[in-house]
Amino acid sequence: MPSLKNPAIAGDVQFDTFIYGAPPLAYPALLSQYTIYNTPDPAYVTGRINVSAFANLGASTPWPFFNTNVPLNGHVCVPRGRGPFPLAVFAHGNHNPFENSTPGYLYLCQLLASHGIIAATIDVNFLNGFNFGENDGRAIVHLEHLKQFRTWNNTATHPLDGKVDLNRILIVGHSRGGEAVGHASFFNRLASIGAVPLDGSVGLGPYRFGLSAVAAIAPTDRQFTPVSGPTVVPDSYYLIHGSKDSDVFTFEGYHTYERAHAVDLANPTVSDGKFKAMLWVHKANHNQFNSIWASETPPGVAMPRASQAEIAKVHLGALAQAVLLDRAEYVDVLRDHGAAVAWDPAGTEFVSQYQDPERIFVQHNQEGLAPPVVSLPVQGTVAADSVVAARQLTALVGGAATTTITLRLVWSVLGSRLLLRADPATLPAERYKTLALRVGQSTEANNAANRDQDFTLEVSSGSRTAAIPASSLHRLLYPDPPPFGPAKIVMQTLRLPVERLVERGVDPNDLRSIALVFDRRATGTVYVGDLQCSN
Amino acid sequence: MQPPQPPKISAVEVVAAQPTEADSAAIAHLSAESNRSLPQVVYVVKVHLKTKPPATSMAWALYVNDVLIPKYWEYADGIYFNVMDPQFFADHKGKRLRFSQNGVDFYDTGIKLPAPIAPAAASRSKGKAAKSKTTRLPLQADVLK
User: Fold this and answer.
1) Which DSSP symbol is given to A34?
2) Residue B7, number of CB atoms within 10 A of its CB
3) Interstrand relation of B96-100 and B61-64 (parallel, antiparallel or unpaired)
4) How many C-beta neighbours within 10 Å does residue A478 have?
5) CA A349, CA A246: separation in Å to the nearest integer?
6) A128 at B interface, C-beta within 8 A
7) What is the DSSP string of chain B?
8) How far is A285 from chain B (nearest CA, A)?
9) SS3 category, A526
């Protein structure tokens, strides 16, 4: 990608950084790290909000306010110029409340501001401590900060008057804040939560912001569950998590990812028009995404802090470029982490997934635990030749029980194959640019330790067949050993360009079969999420 | 590295306290939903911990047998949660407190949920009488000192 610039490199937009807050505030000496909010910039004075319907404040920390009047404190980097500028707002997660977690994302805010994005990092420290279930409160705080920016944008005398593009907003959360951005995306569309109106009548809401995407860094999942069931993120969703995370060590966010934009069995061809993308970073840990937090892993376990920060800058920078600045070429980084190989720290290993808004499932595996089928409306058959093919509710990433079915394929004979035959009249492959297969290997004994897994994808139309080694599309990495507990099975999206099939004589108008041929490793076990025609 | 260990509970007590404004709204909502008139009392369940683990993002969800306590909060000696509906104690008194990080693997704390030592008269009273009696209940902030 010679024309694309590394999104981690600062842009040429000048910006100013302000502290905003809600005086009068007088943090006590024990909370000395918060005294910066006692005297916010005079132009950036905010109000208080009442979160008592959602959260108590930990009674062990001497906050100079109650849950009925928590302040909207934060740091904001504002590009110089007329605007309007897109908005990105970061929120931290749970941590020792005596340490201010908020400035830990200034390195990302400064990067985005230098590219012409108003970028803020917010104070949710008052919900920190040995608490549980407060992530709805974190979501409300995040949305109320967005509301503050809307208020400033609509205030003629304010420096941000008319400068905030309220249709281009990215919310980013780390850790419990990462779970909370999912709830915020859900709450953003609601008129009330239980008995609490979000119409402004009791001070909260209304929201209904144009969220371009929601990004979660090493998030938790389901510590708060709405009465309607686990939160399904309705906006485009981006997830990043490290294999050496020793806090959120079960890759909780993967459950959120799987629930988002999942196939609707009643309307499998219908897409909600949103994408989702995931980046699994080998050797990244939990705390190093926040520049303030001390590493939670002993020396030598995780990658250096500077490398992890660089990865955050590359990939969150690319996300922001793509969804906030309409630089569609950066979507390539979301589609395939390989697009960023020149920018990421050398030698870093990643696994990534991407689901485009434009897709049709050839096989999604969510019909049930019966033997695998080709998924409707595509008509076809599935035949396993010397492959044990079983659909399972496998806990790929640990943590809570999963509700997403994966297809487990086990072989011990070279040349074994899983063959999907399709009626070409029902498979409009010619409308799409890519054949996308999610597949990953496990640490089961028939996969050689520390060796990439591999097989051949055979795609046929009529008498023409293209045989593409999976490894030519992406490495299928052996799982990175976790700090503790079982290794995660993280599937890689293999994206095979339809163009590459056409070059080999395969006619996408007449696509008749897709086979996984296990002819490159004598034995193995892989897990398949889905097979899509996609963009 | 070792996986985190669940906190150890040394004791549990239940103290009746005055509801906050938000609690009153929640009690009214619960009353309407359940079609029962709930008393204007909040039962603060104080779970004394031998040692408090550090504040991390992964959490130990607290269960009373199989019932998840949806929210709890830190105070000086441990954690606490609030109960609005006294029926909760009728249903769960004597059941085991358990911790889990994933809803699959549970750690029995060996401690059982006690009954509240609430002023029964206050919890059963209604109207003006109830108001005057609930005002005699301690504030939650005082209960948590």
Assistant:
1) G
2) 20
3) antiparallel
4) 19
5) 18
6) yes
7) --PPPPPPEEEEEEEEE---HHHHHHHHHHHHHHTS---S-EEEEEEEESSPPP--SS--EEEETTEE---BEEETTEEEEEE--THHHHHHTTPEEEEESSSSSEEEEEEEPPPP---HHHHH--HHHHHHHHTTSPPHHHHT-
8) 13
9) strand
What is the DSSP code (8-state) at residue A45? B
The region that residue A208 occupies, defined by phi over 0 for left and psi between -120 and 50 for alpha, beta otherwise, is: left
Q: Which amino acid is at A16?
A: D
For residue A318, give both structure tokens: 């690319």
**Which of A96, A106, A114 is closest to A309 using CA atoms?**
A106
What pLDDT score was predicted for residue B118? 52
Assess A129–B contact: CB distance below 8 Å, yes or no.
yes
Q: In this structure, are residues A485 and A433 in contact, taking their beta carbons and an 8 Å threshold?
A: no
Beta pairing, strands A237-242 & A211-217: parallel
Question: Is residue B79 less than 8 Å (CB to CB) from chain A?
Answer: yes
pLDDT on residue A386: 96
Number of C-beta neighbours around residue A150 at 10 A: 18
Does A133 sit within 8 Å of B102, measured CB to CB?
A: no
User: DSSP readout, A248-284?
Assistant: STT-THHHHHHHTT---TTSTT---S--EEEEEETT-
* Contact criterion met (CB < 8 Å) for A248 and B58: yes
* pLDDT above 80 for B123: no
User: Where is A514: in which H helix or E strand?
Assistant: strand A511-518
Which candidate from B21, B55, B141 shows the least CB-CB separation from A130?
Answer: B55
Cβ(A278)–Cβ(A257) below 8 Å: yes
Of A249, A353, A524, nearest to B2 (Cα)? A249
Helix (H, G, I), strand (E, B) or coil at A306: helix
Residue B131 has pLDDT above 90, yes or no: no
Mean pLDDT of chain A: 96
Residue B119: predicted pLDDT: 57
Chain A, 235 to 264: residues with Cβ < 8 Å from chain B are 246-250, 252
Strand order in the sheet with B61-64: B67-68, B61-64, B96-100, B106-112
A101 DSSP 8-state letter: -
Local confidence band at A394 (pLDDT 50, 70, 90 cut-offs): confident
Q: Provide the token pair at A368.
A: 């049930």
For residue B80 the two structure tokens come to: 């606490």
**Residue-level pLDDT at A195:** 86
DSSP B74-115: EETTEEEEEE--THHHHHHTTPEEEEESSSSSEEEEEEEPPP
* Cβ burial, residue B121 (10 Å; 0-12/13-18/19+): exposed
CB A517, CB A458: distance < 8 Å? yes
Q: Any chain B CB within 8 A of the CB of A297?
A: yes
What pLDDT does B1 receive? 80
Give the minimum alpha-carbon distance from B50 to chain A in angstroms, rounded to a whole number.
14
Q: What would the pLDDT profile of A120-175 be if each residue is shown by its tens digit?
A: 999 999 999 999 999 999 999 999 999 999 999 999 999 999 999 999 999 999 99
In chain B, residues with a C-beta closer than 8 Å to the C-beta of A133 are 69-72
Closest CB from A52, A97, A133 relative to B70? A133
Q: Please give the pLDDT value at position A362.
A: 96
Which range among A68-82, A106-120, A218-232, A393-407 shows the weakest confidence by mean pLDDT? A393-407
CB of B73 within 8 Å of a chain A CB? The answer is yes
Determine, for residues B1 and A298 on separate chains, whether the beta-carbon distance falls below 8 Å.
yes
Q: How far apart are CA A284 and CA A134, in angstroms?
A: 26
Q: Is B106 on the interface with A (CB under 8 A)?
A: no
